[in-house]
Specification:
The complex is a heterodimer of chains A (571) and B (254).
Chain A lengths: L15 E7 L3 H12 L4 E4 L7 H4 L17 E3 L18 H4 L14 H5 L9 H14 L25 H13 L4 E2 L34 H4 L1 H6 L3 E3 L3 E7 L5 E7 L5 E11 L2 H11 L21 E4 L2 E5 L14 E3 L15 E6 L3 H12 L3 H9 L4 E8 L8 E8 L5 E6 L4 H20 L4 E5 L2 E5 L25 E3 L14 H18 L2 H4 L29 H13 L1
Parallel strand pairs in A: 1-2, 1-8, 2-5, 3-15, 8-18
Antiparallel strand pairs in A: 4-11, 6-7, 7-8, 9-17, 10-13, 10-16, 11-12, 12-13, 14-15
Helix pairs in contact in A: 1-13, 5-13, 6-12
Chain B lengths: L9 E2 L29 H9 L12 H14 L14 H9 L7 E2 L5 H20 L8 H12 L8 H6 L2 H16 L3 H7 L30 E2 L8 H4 L16
Antiparallel strand pairs in B: 1-3
The chains are: A alpha/beta (571), B mainly alpha (254).
Chain lengths: 571, 254
């Protein structure tokens, strides 16, 4: 088992660091690691704790609430989204501590949604720009998965897939009956075999309660140890309250509250905000100043806008035989057969179908929502917990101007105004959810379920500080640099302009590695010059955490081999 | 545990009340707690602490606590459990509200959780007075059940209209029932009842497919039962309603 340790403080408030990163989660962990390896003085401010996983984490559902962002937020709109445990982490590792760890890539089409479908928007980069970083991060986590993944840009995984749990078997059975291609055993950032100082998965099912086994990747165990070995510092229980803008339109550092509740200031040559799609816009809006009265880096009035969640309906099927869905990782089989726009359907874009594995409390709440269960009915359906299987819809909801994060009148324990989240579904979203939900129910029935019910809900959070080429309609450029302030960057899920039907974790980490390469290539110019260089960096393969790059068995020709075989079979 | 009128489930064949037992459910001799030596220390400590009785209530006053007891007996009835094996629900909710622990968000249409709970109890009394001229605790068990059923359906009986303006029906119902579910199904006795394997670190699960039992788990041994006739909460009561639009509107569940 890995021994994790937060290093003592080495930078002081009075000194100036090169980079302050606000939030040490999926993106922050990767940035910290890359920048430290490249020799920068880099400091991570994390609102939550630096975990001692053996002591702090549990094999328990109700006892794991401290992993989630439980500070107040207000949520509203016509279709208010739930936050907290559903999509918001706190503590070093952030969301990667409680994610289920599905790691599909985006499809090439995701980067040009507007060009292809006339909805949403285009990314300022293409799939090919991100592909080298997908390949790197899949080794750094690393990702277990099938030898052949047929959707999007077809590829295979270097690390072997997981054995099937019964929920995965249900998905494979249902899809096979309906002639839908399906893959199993991944892609998921969970070790099927041990890897350096990390043991393999033991199939205990508590992935989203934090993997105290150490088999599931979180940046806490994949990137932070390497970052600390290379001189990075993390200050935990440090809640950023405001970014300070100095003369010459450059930021000077970050105000934050330490664990005693004292406000402190850390000076930095550049600041990277990596607080995810609620806290990142909240911090920028709370950093409004005379030069940027609508919020720092918000001259476009885009900060907080185009917030997205994915449709995350849970479809539950009761089987005559026992399922015991608490065994095996919730994330272990999926199909992306419906991912792309299909002109035969009356909506743009698509969805994935994935395994989920709710534990008893989550299942009880789903039964309350899906069936209206309470009283004896609730007791009865819970006695049948072991007969139920669950599948998740993961559907693309488009970015809408009206879906946004603003500041509420309420304040948190530090007196900082909290986020207000406004969310509505629009026509395309509703049609997609209706079609997708019915398709998953069909798969569940085809697998042999005698009763099928569903709960409408949402998963993940992205957008709210999107990247784009036009400073009038986006917050950051294609490398995460804010259009307004040359030494202020944003790098986390909030910069994603659209989201596809892929779980965002891998993409967030890949974007962070790319931004790191850009910053390293630019070097001192970031700290001194206002020049905005837009040439892409050459991907650095020498900055991976020790023992990850060139490990595993690569499958460089998998797509070529398989496409040839398919061509032969057709001929 | 005070003596309360009992409304146990019935035997499906004889329709006679079933004797309360230490462990209802279809895994009669399954004991997850017997596996505690295979669990890690941190988990064992937290799970076993749930077997201890909780400290006295700090959020609910005695009158509220009495009413909570009545309501929770409808939301999660436990009349199939003997007096020594009932799972305490109210102390878990009380602790959360006292410590002001939230789920990490609040609907813009909802008051803070502590206020929401008190308003909900008020609403129950208002509905009871309006329809029966008595407070909720004075109603028959059946009358209480019907009031709660009307809220579950999203169409509360009349009497508390003003409260519902400040307390959206489906949101408070989801919060309340959700808290009851969290309290009951975190208790290892409930894991025995439903055959849940519980913690498996560091030992691991070894049989992943076809719902096979681990060597230390138990196979299912079903029996038929029906809810007491005065209850309206069993699943067949729900089957009259294909959809629960107030509950499936989206985003109201964590």
């Amino acid at each position: 088992m890995q021994k994790l340790r937060a290093e003592g403080s080495q930078f002081t408030d009075r000194g100036t660091v090169d980079y302050v990163i606000v939030g040490v989660g999926s993106a922050g962990g990767v940035l910290l690691q890359r920048l430290a390896r490249a020799g920068f003085k880099v400091l991570g401010l994390e609102a939550g704790p630096f975990w001692d996983t053996e002591k702090d984490w549990l094999s328990d559902e109700a006892g794991s609430n401290k992993l989630y962002w439980e500070d107040l937020r207000i949520t509203g709109g016509v279709n208010p989204i739930s936050l907290g445990a559903n999509n918001s982490g706190k503590g070093v590792g952030g969301g990667s501590v409680h994610w289920a760890a599905f790691t599909p890539r985006l499809h090439p089409s995701d980067f040009q949604v507007y060009s292809l479908d006339g909805v949403g928007t285009n990314w300022p980069i293409s799939y090919e720009d991100l592909k080298p970083y997908y390949e790197l991060l899949e080794l750094e986590m690393p990702v277990s998965g099938p030898a052949w993944f047929p959707w999007g840009d077809p590829h295979g995984y270097a690390y072997g897939p997981h054995p099937l749990g019964e929920v995965g078997d249900v998905l494979v059975r249902g899809c096979t009956k309906l002639g839908i291609r399906v893959c199993a055993g991944g892609p998921v950032a969970i070790l099927a075999g041990s890897h350096d100082d990390r043991p393999h998965c033991i199939y205990r099912g508590y992935c989203i309660q934090g993997c105290k086994v150490g088999a599931k990747a979180s940046t806490l165990i994949t990137h932070v140890p390497d970052a600390l070995r290379h001189g990075a510092e993390i200050r935990d229980y440090s809640m950023a309250s405001r970014i300070a803008l100095g003369p010459n339109n450059r930021v000077e550092g970050v105000f934050y509250f330490d664990r005693e509740g004292t406000e402190r200031f850390q000076r930095a040559k550049a600041v990277i905000v990596a607080g995810y799609a609620i806290e990142t816009p909240r911090l920028l809006l709370n950093s409004a100043c005379p030069e940027y009265p609508m919020g720092l880096a918000n001259s476009s009035d885009t900060v907080g806008r185009y917030l997205m969640v994915q449709a995350g309906n849970v479809i539950l099927g009761r089987f005559r035989n026992l399922v015991r869905m608490y065994k095996a990782p919730p994330a272990h089989a999926l199909t992306e057969e419906f991912y792309e726009t299909d002109p035969k359907r009356d909506f743009a874009r698509g969805f994935a179908i994935q395994t989920v594995g709710p534990l008893p409390i989550a299942f009880g709440k789903q039964m309350m929502a899906a069936m209206g269960a309470w009283g004896w009915g609730l007791r009865r359906v819970m006695m049948d917990y072991n007969h139920w299987s669950a599948l998740g819809l993961l559907g693309e909801i488009l970015p809408w101007h009206a879906n946004r994060v603003t500041l509420a009148k309420e304040t948190d324990q530090f007196g900082i105004p909290v986020a207000h989240v406004h969310f509505n579904l629009f026509d395309n979203d509703k049609k997609l959810i209706e079609f997708g939900k019915n398709k998953v129910m069909e798969v569940m029935s085809a697998a042999g379920a005698e009763q099928v019910v569903q709960e409408q809900r949402y998963a993940h959070l992205v957008g709210a500080a999107r990247m784009g080429a036009d400073p009038g309609t986006s917050v950051v450029d294609k490398f995460g640099r804010t259009h307004d302030v040359p030494n202020l960057f944003i790098c986390d899920g909030s910069i994603m302009p659209t989201q596809g039907s892929a779980n965002p974790g891998l993409t967030i980490q890949a974007l962070a590695a790319r931004t790191a390469d850009y910053l390293i290539m630019q070097g001192e110019r970031i700290f001194r010059s206002d020049l905005r260089e837009l040439t892409a960096p050459t991907p650095r393969v020498d900055l991976s955490p020790a023992g990850t790059f060139r490990k595993g068995i690569p499958r460089p020709h998998a797509s070529w081999i398989f496409s040839r075989r398919i061509a032969h079979a057709k001929a | 545990m005070s003596t309360r009128p009992s409304h146990p489930p019935r035997d499906t064949d004889t329709h006679l009340p079933m004797e309360p037992v230490a462990q209802p459910g279809y895994y009669p001799d399954y004991d997850v707690i017997s596996q505690q030596n295979a669990w890690d220390d941190a988990t064992r400590k937290v799970v076993l602490s749930r077997l201890q009785s909780r400290p006295s209530l700090q959020f609910f006053n005695p009158a509220e606590a009495e009413m909570m007891l009545l309501v929770c007996d409808h939301i999660i009835p436990q009349d199939d459990r003997d007096a020594d094996h009932r799972i305490e629900i109210i102390p878990v909710i009380d602790e959360r509200l006292h410590k002001k622990r939230t789920a990490g968000y609040r609907y813009e249409t909802m008051p803070p959780d502590d206020e929401a709970y008190r308003l909900f109890l008020q609403a129950l009394d208002l509905m009871s007075r309006h329809n029966h001229g008595k407070q909720f605790s004075g109603l028959s068990w059946r009358e209480q059940e019907l009031i709660l059923q009307s809220i579950n359906k999203g169409k509360p009986l009349e009497g508390a209209g003003e409260v519902w303006l400040r307390l959206p029906v489906h949101q408070i119902w989801t919060l309340f029932v959700g808290d009851c579910i969290t309290a009951y199904y975190q208790h290892p006795w409930s894991w025995n009842e439903i055959g849940f394997g519980g913690p498996a670190y560091p030992r691991a699960y070894i049989r992943l497919e076809r719902g096979e039992a681990e060597p230390w788990e138990r196979d299912e041994n079903r029996y038929d039962w029906e809810a007491p006739p005065e209850s309206v909460s069993d699943l067949d009561e729900l089957s009259h309603h294909d959809h629960f639009p107030h509950l499936t509107k989206g985003g109201v569940h964590d």
